[in-house]
Each structure stands twice: as C-alpha cells, then as structure tokens.
C-alpha cells in the first residue's frame, strides 16, 4: 500500500485512553473498603498461610512413600494378646490388598501387551503370560478358597495344612 501523503487529513484515535483526573474532596468508598479489607482480613490470612507453607516446606512429607512397620505375624503372637491379634489381622488385610493390586497390575500389563502386539501376542507376550501365571498361582496358594470372610487365622491354618500335605507327599515319595 502506498504511503499516504495526507496523513493530517485523517484523525487517528488516541493510542492510549487518558486516565480521568477526578478531583474531589470525598474519597471513593470502594477504594476505602478495599483498603480496609486488605489490611484487616487479607493481610493476616496471607501472612499465616505463607508462614505455614514455609514450615511445611522445611518438613516435606511424601504420603506415597509412607512405610508401615511390620507387626508380628499371627503365629508370633502370645496366647491371649488380643492387641497383637488385631495388629496381625490388619497387617494381613494390607498384605492381601497389596497382593491383589500386584495381580491386577500384571494382568493389566498382559492386556496392554496383547493389545500392542496384536497377532504376535503369543510369542512376544510369553514373558508376561509366565509372570501372570506365577503371580496368580502364588496368590491362589496363599489366599485361595478363603472366601470373602477370610482372615489371618484361616489363612495361617490353610498354609499349615498345605505344608503338612507337602511333607506327607515328600515322605511317601522317599519310601
């Protein structure tokens, strides 16, 4: 576009909107209310919040790295020690949930591998299939046939009976 030689003929709008200079003896009540609110409510709350954040920054706590101490197993509890029974039961429930999640994660990995590999899943996902078989067998050996109302005592008895059967089978094989 050619340079316009008659620039003065066109009035250009101002580049900045001028600020109105209001000169009155009465202050604006909105500014007064905002100032009072900032000093009375906002400033103390902001100060307390920043102080708390500084204190928390000194002591970082990562909840996802929390490690619970292991409590004695049910077989290690003394007779009549009901607190130990309760702690062992809670520990068993946590262990069962962890084992369930492990099985679920391995199952999801196998599903993702099968989806990714498509028709080559049998040869390329053999490692995941073997791992799922091992994890599922271990879970079934420990928690299988306990049902919904299984607890640490029935699980311990199940493991004891399984060990006794293995000893009998080993003794019969050696004779």
From TrEMBL:
GO-annotated cellular components: mitochondrial inner membrane; respiratory chain complex I
Record membrane topology: Peripheral membrane protein
Location of this chain's protein in the cell: Mitochondrion inner membrane
Region: Disordered, residue numbers: 1-23
Recite the UniProt keywords alphabetically: Electron transport, Membrane, Mitochondrion, Mitochondrion inner membrane, Respiratory chain, Transport
Against Pfam families, the record matches this protein to: NDUFB10 (PF10249)
Q: In UniProt terms, what function does this protein have?
A: Accessory subunit that is involved in the functional assembly of the mitochondrial respiratory chain complex I. Complex I has an NADH dehydrogenase activity with ubiquinone as an immediate electron acceptor and mediates the transfer of electrons from NADH to the respiratory chain.
Which protein family is it in? Belongs to the complex I NDUFB10 subunit family.
Name used for this protein in its record:
NADH dehydrogenase [ubiquinone] 1 beta subcomplex subunit 10
State the organism of origin.
Eubucco bourcierii (red-headed barbet)
Please name the gene that encodes this protein: Ndufb10
């Amino acid at each position: 576009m050619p340079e316009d030689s008659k620039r003065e003929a066109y009035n250009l709008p101002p580049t900045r909107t001028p600020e109105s200079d209001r000169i009155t003896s009465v202050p604006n009540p909105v500014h007064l209310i905002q100032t009072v609110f900032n000093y009375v409510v906002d400033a103390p709350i902001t100060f307390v919040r920043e102080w708390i954040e500084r204190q928390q920054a000194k002591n970082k706590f990562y909840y996802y790295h929390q490690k619970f101490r292991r409590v004695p197993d049910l077989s290690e509890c003394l007779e009549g020690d009901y607190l130990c029974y309760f702690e062992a039961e809670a520990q068993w429930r946590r262990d069962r949930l962890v084992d369930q999640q492990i099985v679920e994660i391995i199952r999801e990995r196998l599903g993702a591998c099968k989806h990714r590999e498509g028709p080559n899943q049998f040869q390329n996902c053999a490692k995941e299939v073997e791992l799922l078989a091992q994890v599922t067998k271990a879970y079934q050996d420990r928690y299988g046939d306990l049902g919904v109302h299984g607890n640490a005592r029935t699980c311990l008895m199940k493991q004891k009976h399984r060990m006794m059967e293995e000893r009998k089978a080993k003794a019969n094989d050696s004779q």
